[in-house]
């Protein structure tokens, strides 16, 4: 049976996914540490302030709507720190009606427990475009 810490981290990931899909950027921002760093292929590291700016665009209807699914493959807790790698599939629906963009792959995430609450502290995103399915 998963530990209480593991259950809390899994709940954090689930909340992150549902808040992202609902466009609730304030909730997503509350799930990360102030010094969070996101690593993405081909992009400079993104910090919380950068994430907040991107979220403002989404709130204004100028950003894609997201759907996705994350499955934690491995989760290890070591004191106030934890790490997980997960399989992630995300579909972005552009606001202008352009075809959706799908990306899938793996993430490596570090969580930090602060004041009794787990938050996302570091995330390395290895998602790649999903090729269009041929019929």
In words, what does this structure look like?
By secondary structure, this protein is α+β, with helices and mostly antiparallel strands. Helices cover 27% and strands 46% of the residues. The protein contains 3 helices and 7 strands, in the order H-H-E-E-H-E-E-E-E-E. Strands 1, 2, 3, 4, 5, 6 and 7 form a 7-stranded mixed sheet that branches. Strand 5 (101-114) and strand 6 form a beta hairpin. The longest helix has 19 residues, at 4-22. The protein is globular, with a radius of gyration of 15 Å. The mean pLDDT is 92.
Major sheet size, sense and barrel closure: 7 strands, mixed
Radius of gyration: 15 Å
Structural class: alpha+beta
The string of secondary-structure elements, in order, is HHEEHEEEEE
From the spread of the alpha carbons, the general shape counts as globular
β-strand percent reads: over 45%
Summarize the structure.
With 135 residues, the chain is of the alpha+beta class. Helices cover 27% and strands 46% of the residues. Strands 1, 2, 3, 4, 5, 6 and 7 form a 7-stranded mixed sheet that branches.
List keywords for this structure.
globular, alpha+beta, 46% strand, 135 residues, 7-stranded mixed β-sheet
Write the layout of secondary structure elements.
Layout: H1 4-22, H2 25-30, E1 32-39, E2 46-47, H3 48-59, E3 65-78, E4 81-93, E5 101-114, E6 117-125, E7 128-129
Parallel strand pairs: 1-6
Antiparallel strand pairs: 1-2, 3-4, 4-5, 5-6, 5-7
């Amino acid at each position: 049976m998963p530990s209480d810490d593991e259950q809390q981290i899994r709940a954090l990931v689930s909340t992150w996914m549902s808040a992202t899909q609902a466009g609730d950027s304030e909730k997503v921002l509350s799930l990360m540490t102030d010094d969070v760093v996101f690593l993405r292929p081909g992009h400079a590291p993104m910090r919380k302030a950068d994430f907040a700016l991107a979220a403002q665009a989404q709130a204004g209807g100028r950003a894609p709507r997201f759907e996705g699914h994350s499955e934690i493959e491995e989760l290890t807790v070591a004191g106030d720190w934890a790490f997980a790698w997960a399989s992630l599939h995300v579909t972005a629906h552009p606001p202008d009606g352009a075809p959706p963009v799908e990306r899938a792959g793996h993430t490596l995430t570090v969580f930090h427990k602060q004041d009794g609450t787990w938050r996302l502290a570091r995330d390395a995103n290895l998602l790649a475009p999903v090729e269009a399915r041929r019929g």
